[in-house]
From TrEMBL:
Its main location: cytoplasm. Gene3D superfamilies: 3.30.300.20, P-loop containing nucleotide triphosphate hydrolases. Residues 67-70 are annotated as: G3. The gene is era_2. GTP binds at residues 20-27, 67-71, 134-137. InterPro entries: G_ERA_dom, GTP-bd, GTPase_Era-like, KH_dom-like_a/b, KH_dom_type_2, KH_sf_prok-type, P-loop_NTPase, Small_GTP-bd. Keywords: Cell membrane, Cytoplasm, GTP-binding, Membrane, Nucleotide-binding, Ribosome biogenesis, RNA-binding, rRNA-binding. Residues 163-165 are annotated as: G5. Residues 12-184 form the Era-type G domain. Residues 215-301 form the KH type-2 domain. Residues 46-50 are annotated as: G2. It is a peripheral membrane protein. It is found in: Cytoplasm; Cell membrane. This is GTPase Era.
Amino acid sequence: MTQNDPAAPEHKSGFACFVGRPNAGKSTLTNALVGQKVAITSGRPQTTRHTIRGIVHRPDAQLILVDTPGLHRPRTLLGERLNDLVRETLAQVDVIAFCLPADQKVGPGDKYIAAQLADLMKGRRPTPVVAVVTKADLVDRETLTKHLLAVDQLGEWQDIVPVSAVDGFQVEVLEQVLVKHLPKGPELYPGGELTDEPEAVMVAELVREAALEGVRDELPHSLAVVVDEILPREGSGNPATGKPPLLDVRVNLFVERDSQKAIIIGRGGSRLRHVGTEARKGIEALLGARVYLDLHVKVAKDWQRDPKQLRRLGF
Ligand SMILES: Nc1nc2c(ncn2[C@@H]2O[C@H](COP(=O)(O)OP(=O)(O)OP(=O)(O)O)[C@@H](O)[C@H]2O)c(=O)[nH]1
């Protein structure tokens, strides 16, 4: 069947959104579907702060993935804002993928989300929900079967799909299932475009990822990263030869306490230098140019609880 075939199914397009408790594998799955690193994964809970879209292009469909922060019980003002953001997103998408990791029993966090989704499904225009059992590679067949049954009991899902983003198991099947729920429609984004996030947000995410690598405790919730400026350095680069300019990228890392600042910076600044080197590699790949990365660590006391600070930091 060709695209010009009158019997060919019409093109579909729309939005899918991933929800699930922190660390459920939402970002990794988004990346596996889109095939490029657009959302950060740091191995720590609640690191995805921004709604990042990846786009799956197919001849018959365009699937736009909205990767949200985990829907969780709010403990702080930041938590409440994140939940509002999630609910707003959920009401607007065409299909929701509820991620539940196969290597963890269905717990209170999952039940909380299931209850929220059940509420949403009672609405006038209920959004279909597909349950996705992630990290299938981490468990044996028997455990997976038991888990699928437990997930089935948890709510009224349109489909239940086990996947592994790491070995690719059933990732295509999931894509198929999500596309099935999209309405007929034209391409919403021109071909080839993988994300519509502003570059600055992606640069901030790369720095955040590098800064969180290997640090335990409170830090994931207490670190906000804001890109101050991205400027081509004067006199660098040569349009005639196609040599890209050197970019000066200035980034602020906000923590809540002096002790956290010390953790980020490390002894004699060694850790921050390492963070800079790691983040720079990703930013150069992203922007396709050489980068001079200037990192500044600042203390913004209790920023998670202060509405003014939250606004200033972009939440
Ligand atoms: N073995 C295995 N590990 C996975 C898989 N998917 C994700 N992980 C790991 O699980 C951890 C969490 O994955 P993320 O994709 O960051 O999870 P998330 O749901 O986006 O997390 P938050 O942003 O905190 O809500 C990371 O260490 C991933 O490498 C998978 O299919 N198999």
